[in-house]
Design a protein that fits this description.
Low-confidence stretches: none
Number of strands: 6
CATH architecture: 2-Layer Sandwich
Strand content: 35-45%
CATH class: Alpha Beta
Number of helices: 3
Shape: globular
Length: about 100
């Protein structure tokens, strides 16, 4: 699988920012079929960094209501990637 298909994008949240500063961890939305090894190789190839550990979790889509009808958001997969000491990825430099 192409590394750019595995990594859908970064998740920029308040908790993610704290994890980045304290533990050098980044959070990504990834393809649901990708495993930890594929995610590790994709992050290393795309961002040119060393990855120490990858934790993954399945996130269930929320049930939302529009008027009378109920709908459901899609399920997705989240990966928390721990980078090696000295490596970092800057998504918003100078913002």
């Amino acid at each position: 699988m192409n590394p750019y298909e595995i990594i859908r994008g970064p998740l920029i949240t308040e908790k993610g920012t704290i994890q980045k500063e304290a533990n050098n961890q980044l959070t990504f939305e990834v393809d649901r079929k990708a495993n930890r090894v594929e995610i590790k190789h994709a992050v290393e190839k795309v961002f040119n960094v060393r990855v120490e550990k990858v934790r993954t979790m399945q996130v269930k889509g929320k049930v939302k209501r529009v008027g009378r009808t109920l709908g459901k958001r899609r399920d997705w997969k989240k990966a928390i990637v721990t980078l090696a000491k000295g490596d970092n990825i800057e998504f918003f430099e100078g913002v």
